[in-house]
Amino acid sequence: MPVPSTQPAAERKLLRDTVQDKIRDAIMDGTLEPGERLNDDDLIAWLGVSRTPIREALAELARAGLIEMAPNRYTRVAAPTKDELLDAYRTLGVIYGGVVRLAVPNFTEPQRKKIVKMLDDAHSRIGSDGQADVFRNGADLYSLWADACGNPSLVNLCRSTTDGLAFKLRVPELAEVVPPEAILPEIEKLKAAVLAKDPIAAELAMEAIHLLPSRA
């Protein structure tokens, strides 16, 4: 019998993913600002694609927490609030505590050096009132841990949640809710655990950085 062609579906998925990446990048780099309304016709003109892949991409971004949608009312970039900050930050800690436990033993030496350099940079900038900038680009640091964890299911979970959760940290009250003096010593502990190739210590440090209650 004739074999059904699946090529059109594959093309739609690829196009949707491309559109999703472009809108996601525009949100994360500030081109599209929090609360900004997203109009289909404007997106069609910008991206040069039809309405269908745009709506599919927006639905995925809404599930990730980067877009807010209300049928027949609005589609807009999410606007993070102080009330969401701590829950989002601790959720990242729950996820990435497990990720670093798996990742630390898997790091190649180049990966380990890159992580250590990024932790040193984060520590320096947070200590110099650059906390907001560090957290703004936090998704990049999280992705390095995920890429090395060796667990495809966990990698997929991270990719589907990290952007939306990290985006919720972009509020003026960040230093009030996440005091630099509380996390700077834990970043040092995380760095030491990475260098010592100690997954348990790394997990505990990552959880402490994210203000999770002590297990003791």
Provide an overview of this structure:
The protein is mostly helical and 216 residues long. 69% of the residues lie in helices and 4% in strands. It is built from 11 helices and 2 strands, in the order H-H-H-E-E-H-H-H-H-H-H-H-H. The chain has a two-stranded antiparallel sheet with strand order 1-2. A hairpin with a 3-residue loop joins strand 1 (67-70) and strand 2. Helix 4 runs antiparallel to helix 8 (152-167), helix 4 runs antiparallel to helix 11 (199-209) and helix 7 (138-148) runs antiparallel to helix 8. The chain is globular. Mean pLDDT is 90; it is low at 7-12.
Write a brief structural summary.
By secondary structure, the protein is mainly alpha-helical. It has helices spanning 7-28, 40-47, 51-64, 82-103, 109-127, 131-136, 138-148, 152-167, 174-177, 180-196, 199-209; strands spanning 67-70, 74-77. The longest helix has 22 residues, at 7-28.
